[in-house]
Amino acid sequence: MSRIRVALVDDQALFRAGVRMLVDSQPDLEFAGEAGDGVTAVALVERERPDVVLMDVRMPLADGIQATERILAEADRAGRAAPRILVLTTFDLDENAARAIRAGASGFVLKDADPEFLLAAIRTVHQGNAVLAATATRELFAHLGRGGGRRPAPAAWNELTVREREIFALAAKGLSNAEIAQAEFLSEATVKTHVSRVLAKLGLRDRVQLVVFAYEHELSE
Fold first, then answer.
1. Reduced to 3 DSSP states, what percent helix, strand and coil does the chain have, rounded to the nearest 5?
2. Rounded CA separation 16/19 (Å)
3. Residue 15: which H helix or E strand, with range?
4. Residues 90 and 198 in one domain
5. Is residue 73 domain-shared with residue 179, that is, in the same domain?
6. Residue 137 falls within a domain, yes or no?
7. Which of 8, 35, 75, 112 could form a disulfide with 41 if both were Cys (CB 3.0 to 4.6 A apart)?
8. Does one domain contain both 47 and 88?
9. Which positions ≥6 away from 210 have C-beta within 8 Å?
10. For 14-38, what is each residue's pLDDT tens digit?
């Protein structure tokens, strides 16, 4: 099995050194390089093509939000799979972290999280899943967007079947595949298939983006 290639973007050299040692200690992970600012990060990803990028939010030249947007845009233009981007933040309810997720990041973790949690988060986003409970992500967006207007659902929403909309609603609440399967009396494999179809039809990268979509288009409770 090929190893998960991990790149790190953070302006603190000591923090980068610690994360590099942690990643290098894992047999299934490979350190793919580091950058100290958002501009260098874009070039790093273009050169090394990591699977997962650990991205700090507050950095010089270009911040983590700008770097996330550029990295994903470059991948889209080139027609290749984009890396999963995991935002590193200092605060639980960091509005910048929420903005980064809106820009296309797959989740966030606190910079002082336990090493084992960070390692698990890397593996989780690589599999295309959310790192944090989706309800926590929804809380972030409620915190960020309080008082702002929401948009009606786009035409793509109408392409979902009744069953897919049911699965969408449960996933938007933060339920795992196993929990959805139990609630709907389906197999986990069937739920996974439905979720994949929902993401494809709506043009979403992962379940975190699904929660964002639900919030922004008035489809969340």
1. 55, 15, 35
2. 5
3. helix 13-24
4. no
5. no
6. no
7. 35
8. yes
9. 134, 168, 171, 172, 195, 198, 199, 202, 204
10. 999 999 999 999 999 999 999 999 9
CA dihedral of residues 187, 190, 195, 200 (deg, nearest 10): 170
Q: Using CA of residue 93, residue 152, residue 206, residue 186, what is the dihedral sign? A: positive
What CATH number does the domain containing 171 carry?
A: 1.10.10.10
Same domain, 31 and 84: yes
- Enter the pTM of the model: 0.75
> 3-class DSSP state for residue 194?
helix
Q: Which of 57-61, 79-83, 118-122 is predicted with the least confidence, judged by mean pLDDT?
A: 57-61
Name 140's Cβ contacts closer than 8 Å, sequence gap at least 6. Answer: 93, 94, 95, 97, 98, 101
Last residue in a domain, options 111, 132, 153: 132
Cite the beta strand spans of the chain per DSSP E.
Answer: 4-9, 29-35, 52-56, 84-89, 107-110
Q: Domain residues for 8?
A: 4-132
